[in-house]
Amino acid sequence: xxxxxxxxxxxxxxxxxxxxxxxxxxxxxxxxxxxxxxxxxxxxxxxxxxxxxxxxxxxxxxxxxxxxxxxxxxxxxxxxxxxxxxxxxxxxxxxxxxxxxxxxxxxxxxxxxxxxxxxxxxxxxxxxxxxxxxxxxxxxxxxxxxxxxxxxxxxxxxxxxxxxxxxxxxxxxxxxxxxxxxxxxxxxxxxxxxxxxxxxxxxxxxxxxxxxxxxxxxxxxxxxxxxxxxxxxxxxxxxxxxxxxxxxxxxxxxxxxxxxxxxxxxxxxxxxxxxxxxxxxxxxxxxxxxxxxxxxxxxxxxxxxxxxxxxxxxxxxxxxxxxxxxxxxxxxxxxxxxx
Amino acid sequence: xxxxxxxxxxxxxxxxxxxxxxxxxxxxxxxxxxxxxxxxxxxxxxxxxxxxxxxxxxxxxxxxxxxxxxxxxxxxxxxxxxxxxxxxxxxxxxxxxxxxxxxxxxxxxxxxxxxxxxxxxxxxxxxxxxxxxxxxxxxxxxxxxxxxxxxxxxxxxxxxxxxxxxxxxxxxxxxxxxxxxxxxxxxxxxxxxxxxxxxxxxxxxxxxxxxxxxxxxxxxxxxxxxxxxxxxxxxxxxxxxxxxxxxxxxxxxxxxxxxxxxxxxxxxxxxxxxxxxxxxxxxxxxxxxxxxxxxxxxxxxxxxxxxxxxxxxxxxxxxxxxxxxxxxxxxxxxxxxxx
DNA sequence: AAACATATTGAAATCGATTTCACAAAATGC
DNA sequence: GCATTTTGTGAAATCGATTTCAATATGTTT
Lengths: 339, 339
Known about the structure:
2 copies of one chain form a homodimer. The first copy, chain A, has 12 helices and 14 strands. In chain A, the strands form 4 sheets. A 6-stranded parallel sheet of chain A has the order 2-1-3-4-5-11, sandwiched between helices. A 4-stranded parallel sheet of chain A has the order 7-6-8-9, sandwiched between helices. A two-stranded antiparallel sheet of chain A has the order 10-12. The relative contact order of chain A is 0.12. Helix content of chain A is 44%, strand content 16%. By secondary structure, chain A is of the alpha/beta class. Chain A binds a DNA duplex through helix 2 and helix 4.
């Protein structure tokens, strides 16, 4: 920068002013400075910049598995919105490890980033609140946290369950199993709530045997389903907490010779890429992932740049049931089958 | 840091020495300093640190689509190795836009990162070389660049093609189409070379009509296949440049009523997640993605920390053909079919 | 006990930008 | 034409760490 200043015969202060359009600089000197910058191929040093300004214009996005289309879509929404606001994002993959999620907080603590977005985090609401109360800026996707300065974007899990179960009841099912994720995740809890509500609404009993927990991935679904199935509970339909788990159910069924949807109806959540390729095509629930990412990060950036801004903080977005082959068959009470 | 120094009754220099174990500090003062750090909950500022040290211990990983399992696995390899060397990585998704790939270079230019890893980049070798010659540190995955200071990890594309084609010839195919990616990508070029070599080896003619280019994704495969198919070339097998494209072929076939593998054999490359779920299961080629990522970044870090280090710079890793249902059928010259 | 080596520490310079403050030059008002 | 405001610019302080250099304290050798 000093070189630029010398070449343009001005002070570094002026160079800085030109770079940031901060205060008026005469057209003539501005021209000189720009030319010098160009000739020297000068690029301002990011560390120096953020050291002085105490801002990095960078947001960390913490996801548990970039591989999953759920996260990938959200990240795209975040990225595009962030870029349009001249923010950079860094994507942090925790590979489903709780410990790594905590580690990532150091990015905010050492001021590598200005803010963090946690997507469907593993850590508890209380931990996040404590973190925010220590002065860090955080946004959450996929969960709702009651806190005045934490923006959240999430889908109504209760409603998702209710719609799915209503659809299954409509198809004549009454023994509907629920493959849930980690028992203590908010998602799981809310979906279970919706599941129970829907049953109650249909005046069906809630049988705890029909609920099984597992990991939020293919193998989790596979194992949880096998535990369920070997209990011989006359299940005719499975509601899996996400499509990955539903794929695990598919695999188990293939091994066990159970045909979908004739012998078993399966529904997932996410509408991931595989869902529409696999045979039979998987019924699922679509969430506006891209929009959640974009909305949330826009809100977060607004919040960082204007502390008074106390607009809407919580985004509860709508989901949509997508009915495909895996839930295309109706059954009646006698056990006979019709398409 | 000044607070810490005051609380411990030492200078900031000493605090810094304690933090970095740089030079001898007496056990007693060290203890005092550590205690003060702990009590004040002090965390060094990353910007200041890297401004002074001219190092960020951060590596940018540029991929064209984090969603793809090809990239995701590589990134995991990179991340784990980088972390074990106390480096951070930032993942940059270019969403297949060439322009964004170029933009990402600014991360190195403004010293936000110490080095960049390009995974299967779109930009040309010459552009990358020019960048490196301007003093930036770069590693490449998925392509080979002849340059003394660019480490590369890649698979032998020629060999991949040869093995795939050999397998198909073995199954009795002689009209084998090749769905290539961008015509000017190195991958495409090398695979085409392997394709031609294999044909020559089998004393079959090379028919340019059988080669079609498309985008490296599902839709690219779909469209390229349709262009091919409507030329009515008596194709019995398709070799797609990656699994995504193969999935596009699947979709087109479903629409056109072509059965796989009875009427058409399909093989992809990548062994992505969908490949083993879809019906029929897709034959493909597995590359050691995780290992490529880890190897490359280890090399890159070594190179940054020791300029004399002129060990192996190029990693040509082995791939493996995975035969599944989509290529399970043999044909003979009379056109009859057997499993 | 003097001379010298070694261990420990602090003051101050430095990294490369931004920003405050002051001041000169130009523009405006009367 | 003089006072006043506005504009444009530079010198120097600052952000928060690291590192050099010098100074002091301690230990060792004769």
